[in-house]
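Ticket #4471: structure output looks truncated?

Reporter: J.K.
Steps to reproduce: submitted the chain below (107 residues) through the standard prediction queue, then opened the result file.
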Amino acid sequence: MKHNWQEVRLGDVSIVKGGKRLPNGINLVSTPNSHPYIRIRDLTNIRNLEITEKFEYVDIKEYEKIRNPMDTEIHYLCNENLQLSIIRDALLPKLISGEIAVPEENT
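Returned output as attached by the reporter:
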């Protein structure tokens, strides 16, 4: 292991969800960059993951095409979360004080 690296469990520094395939038409490149394409097969029967010459990479321009819609979705969800927090903060004190009530369901 490199001298300034620390050994950690992958799950301690990331969320491993399985992954997704690249969209059709996106090809991997052999030129190293900051976006290695790590497959499950790269993680089996190893103790340390080391990016070597056997890895392929997602081209930076292609990565941006993949990332941009995710950034838009993250921005939308953060804004929605903020709006819901504002509504919660306005309603909760009124619910607790009895100023407003939630009608019971007629069953």
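Triage note (M.O.): checked the attachment and the full token line is present. The chain has one domain: 10-97.
Status: closed, working as intended.
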